[in-house]
Write a structure and sequence with these properties.
The strands form 3 sheets. A 5-stranded parallel beta sheet has the order 2-1-3-4-5, sandwiched between helices. The chain is an alpha/beta fold.
């Protein structure tokens, strides 16, 4: 039985589209399914509908020329391997790889063998680069995305907002009364709490949501397609339900501790509450601290018994 491989081809020359498909036809091992488009907007819509295995893009199309085409595609291409097609200029191809493509092919030298080999190598290279990239963009304690990854994701989703008006929300999360936990039980217990929260955030999120550790006991979420306050409040309520509660951890002496945790959460929506990514982060952060102050006031007037050993 043949394996299946989906390719999206960005090409505005109908003759080149025909030749491309002919080179991949009648393969004995793989069934190549190719969908073509002649515009960046068309490619973006295809990716939004179904994520392909490979992108093959001509650098020179009617609306974009040269490496700018690759830069635009990478803004919405997620983690899809990219092969660029260029004329007779190896230097442009090498620069394309430096800018994030996995391989390049000179149109004058393409044949069935070189094309199929490039497709296979592009997939393998992306897997390798992704594995190496995880080391630089992951928080070592929680294995969530780190601040550098957050900045990169925010830039990408802001580009989508400006080009396609795809709204998004940023949520800032902070653990209430985290310092007393560290002071009472030590940083080992505090680290375990951070790991547990990171695990819950990873488990209970949609595939397109970004989850990261902002620093210390602060976490951050980027959630696409939140376009009104009602959706935002439902999202925040859902995160409270998932994260608030008792966390069982073992102390350095071997005691099983049952620690109640609550999370302060604040959010904002791009284009509604804020008109730049920087302003959006500030608003989400401000709303988080308002929520933290409200929690402190409730705790002061209520039960002050924060910690207990597990029965």
């Amino acid at each position: 039985m043949k394996s299946e491989l989906t390719i999206y081809l960005l090409e505005d020359n109908s003759d080149d589209v025909y030749l491309f498909k002919q080179l991949l036809a009648n393969d004995k091992a793989i069934n190549y399914s190719t969908l073509e488009t002649d515009s960046l907007d068309g490619l973006h819509k295809l990716i939004n509908a179904i994520v392909p295995d490979i992108l093959v893009i001509d650098l020179n199309i009617r609306e974009s020329i040269g490496l700018d085409t690759l830069v635009e595609v990478r803004k919405f291409s997620l983690d899809i391997p990219i092969i660029v097609l260029t004329g007779n200029d190896d230097e442009i191809g090498i620069q394309a790889i430096q800018l994030g493509a996995q391989d390049y092919l000179l149109k004058s030298e393409i044949n069935a063998s070189t094309l199929k080999r490039a497709i296979q190598f592009a997939k393998e290279r992306l897997i390798l680069y992704s594995a190496l990239g995880q080391l630089a963009t992951r928080d070592k304690l929680t294995m969530l995305h780190n601040r550098a990854a957050f900045d990169e994701k925010l830039e990408a989703i802001e580009s989508d907002f400006l080009r396609y008006e795809v709204t998004y929300s940023v949520l800032m999360l902070d653990i209430n009364n985290f310092k007393p936990i560290n002071d009472t039980y030590g940083h080992l217990v505090g680290d375990k709490i951070l790991q547990h929260i990171g695990h819950r955030l990873q488990m209970f999120n949609r595939a397109n949501d970004f989850v990261g550790r902002f620093g210390g006991d602060e976490f951050v979420l980027i959630v696409p397609k939140v376009d009104n306050d009602e959706k935002l409040q439902r999202l925040i309520a859902n995160k409270r339900k998932v994260l608030n509660g008792q966390y069982a951890v073992q102390s350095i002496t071997g005691e099983i501790l049952n620690i109640p945790i609550s999370i302060a959460i604040g959010g904002g929506i791009r284009g509604i509450n804020a008109f730049s990514p920087k302003e959006l982060i500030s608003i989400a952060d401000l709303n988080m601290y308002k929520d933290k102050a409200l929690n402190a006031a409730k705790q002061e007037s209520g039960n002050n018994n924060c910690f207990s050993k597990k029965d």
